[in-house]
Design goal:
Layout (H helix, E strand, L loop, with lengths): L4 E6 L4 H13 L3 E7 L17 E5 L5 H9 L3 E4 L6 H6 L2 H21 L2 E7 L25 H20 L3 E6 L1 E3 L8 H10 L5 E3 L5 E6 H14 L5 E4 L4 E3 H11 L8 E3 L14 H7 L8 H13 L2 H17 L3
Parallel strand pairs: 1-2, 1-4, 2-3, 4-5, 5-6, 6-10, 7-9, 8-12
Antiparallel strand pairs: 9-11
Helix pairs in contact: 1-7, 2-4, 4-5, 6-8
């Protein structure tokens, strides 16, 4: 790449994408960053306010072929975060997930193929389905796909499109599948910020079912450092799994949040579980650790969560405008 390269970040006003833009602005001044985001309900322009002078923002849709072609033609690397990503929403209306996650990824792949631009595709460990509770098994780069929701099925499909464009057309691409992320600027509909903000508003947190479902929780900055390592040093055509190694059940995470916020461990309500709720996710991140030397800074989720609780406590200007609408949607589905 040239000494100063243009990086196009799709979905850069969403949770992980916005944090990636912040991380890039802080740590990688060699990039001119252009953000493309449709600003659907999960995209928030205010998430980019602290770096607005350091980036260029384009309001647009990744399915818009002309716009995507123009932006890709002027880029040296494309980092593709844009996706519909909420499992509950995919169960009630899968259509936007098919359009954005499949058609949008196809549109980007065709553009990078035309212009010979480096491409990195962000995906989820949910494409692998789930693992048994209490087992020692972990997902690897060779685990067969077994998605269980319209969201994870469309993400699995987008991964396969990238792999096919690498093999069939020689597109210079890498992929990464990450464990559950947590951090600043995460929409209050998501598990961790929902609990934190409920407590702040003196509303009891909500736990799906028994809360036994287990996730490997990775701080968003650790994830984004891993992505930069892959872009710089990753082998083209390869997939890398990213994860902190710290697995916690949902009830453990909720009780940890309650403890960090000075609340009793029993201070929450249970609600009906999500249909088809995956039991456990865990990634074997040996490949990226050994090949690229990546290590998570927040290997202990408690330390990472403490910083996130502090962020939400001091940034209600960002999350309060979303809160009422998010809770109204949950009431509609009884959760």
């Amino acid at each position: 790449m040239p000494a100063m390269a243009t990086m196009l970040v799709t979905g850069g006003a969403g949770f992980i994408g916005a944090n990636f833009v912040h991380y890039t602005a802080r740590n990688h001044p060699e990039y001119d960053v252009v953000v493309l985001d449709a600003l659907t309900y999960a995209g928030n322009r205010s998430s980019l306010a602290p770096v607005s002078e350091a980036i260029r923002f384009v309001h647009g849709d990744i399915c818009d072929e002309r716009l995507v072609d123009r932006l890709v033609a002027d880029s040296d690397v494309v980092v593709h975060f844009a996706a519909e990503s909420h499992v509950d929403n995919s169960l009630s209306d899968p259509r936007p997930f098919v359009r954005t996650n499949l058609v949008g990824t196809f549109t980007l792949l065709e553009a990078v193929r035309r212009h010979g631009v480096r491409f990195h595709h962000i995906s989820s460990d949910e494409v692998f389905g789930d693992l048994a509770l209490g087992s020692a098994a972990r997902f690897t780069e060779r685990t067969a796909y077994d998605p269980s929701s319209p969201y994870s099925a469309t993400k699995a499909g987008s991964d396969l499109l990238v792999r096919a464009w690498v093999r069939s057309y020689g597109v210079r691409a890498t992929l990464s599948n990450c464990a559950n992320n947590y951090g600043p600027y995460q929409h209050v509909e998501k598990f961790i910020p929902r609990q934190i903000t409920n407590i702040m508003l003196a509303d009891r947190p909500k736990l799906y079912g028994s809360g036994a479902n287990v996730r490997e929780w990775t701080h968003v900055d650790d994830h984004n450092e891993a992505v930069h390592r892959i872009i710089r040093d990753g082998r083209l055509g390869e997939t890398y799994l990213i994860g902190s190694g710290d697995e916690r059940s949902n009830v453990e995470i909720l009780e940890l949040i309650l403890d960090l916020m000075g609340q009793p461990a029993t201070g929450y309500d249970r609600v009906d579980d999500r249909p088809g709720h995956d039991l456990r996710y865990a990634n074997d991140s040996t490949k990226i650790r050994n090949e690229l030397g990546w290590r998570p800074r927040f290997a202990d989720v408690r330390a990472g969560l403490a910083t996130v609780v502090d962020w939400y406590l001091h940034n209600d200007w960002w999350w309060k405008p979303q809160k009422a609408a998010a809770e109204a949607r949950y009431r509609e589905i009884g959760r």
